[in-house]
Amino acid sequence: MPDLLLELFSEEIPARMQAKAADDLRRMVTDKLVAEGLVYEGAKAFVTPRRLALTVHGIPARQPDLKDERKGPKVGAPDAAVQGFLKAAGLKSLEEAKIQRDPKKGDFYVALIEKPGRPAIDVLAEFLPVIVRTFPWPKQMRWGERSAKPGALTWVRPLHSIIATFGMETEEPDIVRFDVAGIEAGQTTRGHRFMAPGEFGVRRFDDYEAKLHDAKVVLDPQRRKDIILADAKELAFAQGYELVEDQVLLDEVSGLVEWPVVLMGSFDKEFLSIPGEVIRATIRNNQKCFVVNDPKTGNLANKFILVANIEASDGGKAIVAGNERVIRARLADAKFFYETDLKTKLEDRLPKFDQIVFHEKLGTQAERIARIERLAAEIAPLVVPTAQSAEKEKLVEKAKRAARLCKTDLLTEVVGEFPELQGLMGKYYAQAAGEDASVAAACEEHYKPQGPADRVPSDSVSIAVALADKIDTLVGFWAIDEKPTGSKDPYALRRAALGATRILLQNNIRLNLKKAIDVAYNHLDKNFRGPSEILSVDDTREDLVEFFADRLSGVLKEQGARHDLVSAALHVGVRFIAANEPVYEQDDLLMVVRRVEALGKFLDTDDGKNLLAGTKRASNILAIEEKKDKRSFDGAPDASLYKLEEEKALAAAINDVKREASAAVANEDFAAAMSAMAKLRPAVDAFFEKVKVNDDDAKIRENRLKLLNEIRAATRTVADFSKIQD
To answer: How far apart are CA 631 and CA 374, in angstroms?
Structure first.
């Protein structure tokens, strides 16, 4: 079957737009092909700084013929309805229609419409210019004499030429004939802007890609990345260095060149006195260059690697020299900023925060820092619960100090120039000022983790400040009702809750979330602007605990835990308020995890499986009868109404299990709690085998339903078995 080759050749396409543009082109063309009945075999899009290209192979040569049956009015309908039907169906008279009989609705006219398929090349010529004109560039421009005319073509940069060929692999392809704003589709393109600027003709994709390569253009973005990475590593290794890999920079640089040429430059060693991250940010942000490490020291070397877009006649000496001049000037600025920052202590910067508003409803940055400091002092002792009092006191003081200083680097020159270095520069400045090592580390680590791949802080001071920072953020925005909605989360509150959850779990920290939220809320209330607008502490607490529960559920599912077991553990003790909204009693996330682990092991046993079956049977019967009677069967059953030994045995077993399981849960021994639950199994089995729940005597029936409710209540000491799938 025939293949399509499409190229849209223009001036430079910004690197940040390239990947999406290639995906948009593939999607728009293939979606339209399918909509037109032209089901293809495969498609792949490519992009360089000057061209968007697409190859689609295995396209049928023509559309399939379509047969459609259009239902018309009833026989004997008014003439206006008949004429409308004939016109819509394209029929000359009713003789061209047939009559379809329906015993219930009566006879009606039916038109059989046959629409022959068109050649695929004609279909392409019809919709490709529409795609070009409606291409979704985020920013577009007009150019030339035509730009002033209505309906002038807009494109990311001036569009110069279009290739559109269609044909069998073994035959000479045809040109898909169309034009867009005077640009006619053909089969001619150009090579590299400097090394092969002349025009040349192409036929199909293989021919196109090969000729582009001969004209110094590497079409495939991934191949350009592979070339850059391999050559950069080899060049660094040859000089005794190691490339510092940077995937984001690699993606960007590969979008700036069509023919990558890797070169190495250097800068003065005196700049190595600057922190390595500052050097890297300076070189990366300003010149899009990579840095290298000296494997002997593990530190940055005074070398950098750049990617040129040309094989220069002088071997790249002039290109390297130009980059060295710019980098030297930029590093001189960075060195000046860094040394200027060191002259002012972090603590001396704090008064400026009084003038900086964090949020119009949440006060200034100074007020927020004070809240974090107080909350960190509350959390710090929980991080090391077994520590002696003196050790806890030291930890609290360090946490308060770190919380006080952790935001001050936001006011430094270096962070002003490179915002991505916030936190890290705080650590460096704290170290330079002689602060405690844990305090300095917390200045960097309190922002972590910032994503699923980011590391979780493990130092006690860092943990306390990180949790305080995240909880204050969450409580504050919850209180002013600025919660995430759908895909919108402008304040990264999901990331904050997920980060706090990971910190608690990976460091095995017990934290009463409700208490922490209440403490943070009370601190917030003292500094809050506009108290009439703040939500109640109860609303904030309950909703935020549920939000944490959702994040925990996601973390555990990613780790392979069964979603139903997570739900069962989270819903232990859940009560419901208006509109059946859940109120989560489980606010110790670490304990939820341990419940999930114990529950999973228990359900792998025969006792666990059988008890689950019995509990579900009890719950199902209760649900049916509660719906029928429009009431619940709460309350203790009356022992005097037990008629059968199986009832008495079940009641006794429930009392024993409640006592044992509750004691085990109180001791946080969930394995023992599950073992206690297992003792219910024989009594539950015997009850369902011998006892008729819906007894003819209404009092006996109610009492037995209350006994079933006791089974449900007893198991909820450990988990909500109704949430578990069979």
So the answer is: 48
Can you name the CATH fold of 605-723?
Isoleucyl-tRNA Synthetase; Domain 1 (1.10.730)
The amino acid sitting at 157 is R
CATH level 3 topology of 3-61+120-214:
Alpha-Beta Plaits (3.30.70)
153, two tokens: 């073509």
Neighbouring C-beta atoms of residue 227, cutoff 10 Å: 19
Using alpha carbons, select from 338, 322, 345 the residue that is nearest to residue 270.
338
The pLDDT of 307-320, averaged and rounded, is 96
Bridge-based pairing of strands 51-57 and 3-10 is antiparallel
Query: What is the rounded average pLDDT of the residues 243-249?
Result: 96
Confidence category of residue 524, pLDDT binned at 50, 70, 90: confident
In this prediction, residue 575 carries a pLDDT of: 40
d(C-alpha 203, C-alpha 390), whole Å: 81
Q: Strand pairing of 299-308 and 159-167?
A: unpaired
The model carries a pTM of 0.81
Tell the residue number behind the tokens 């602060």, with chain if given: 435
Show the DSSP H helices in 262-411 as ranges. Answer: 276-287, 317-342, 365-383, 389-405
User: Phi and psi dihedrals of 486, rounded to 5?
Assistant: 60, -125
Contact assessment for residue 185 and residue 164, using Cβ atoms and an 8 Å cutoff: yes
Band of pLDDT at residue 585, cut at 50, 70 and 90? low
Distance from C-alpha of 317 to C-alpha of 151, rounded to nearest angstrom? 47
Q: How many CB atoms lie within 10 A of CB 522?
A: 14
Residue 397, pLDDT score: 97
Rounded-to-integer distance, Cα 493 and Cα 473, Å: 8
* Closest to 163 measured CA to CA, from 1, 44, 10: 10
* CA–CA dist 588, 672 (Å, integer): 19
Domains 3-61+120-214 and 348-560 are alike in CATH topology: no
Sign for the pseudo-dihedral over CA of 354, 357, 359, 361: positive
3-state secondary structure of 532: helix
- Among residues 112, 67, 109, the alpha carbon closest in space to that of 90 is found at 112
pLDDT per position as a tens digit, 461-514: 999 999 999 999 999 999 998 999 888 999 999 999 999 999 999 999 988 888
Tens of pLDDT, residue by residue over 378-420, are 999 999 888 888 999 999 999 999 999 999 999 999 999 999 9
- pLDDT tens for each residue of 421-470: 999 999 999 999 999 999 999 999 999 999 888 999 999 999 999 999 99
390 Cβ neighbours under 8 A, 6+ residues apart: none
Domain boundaries, the chain: 3-61+120-214, 66-115, 221-342, 348-560, 605-723
| 3-state SS string for 90-132 | CCCCHHHCEEECCCCCCCEEEEEEEECCCEHHHHHHHHHHHHH
Q: Is 579 exposed, middle or buried (0-12, 13-18, 19+ CB in 10 A)?
A: exposed
Instruction: Map tokens 């950098």 to a residue.
Output: 304
Q: Taking the CB of residue 316, how many other CB atoms lie within 10 A of it?
A: 19
Domain 348-560, what architecture?
A: Orthogonal Bundle (1.10)
Mean pLDDT of the chain: 91
Pairing of strands 183-186, 179-180: antiparallel
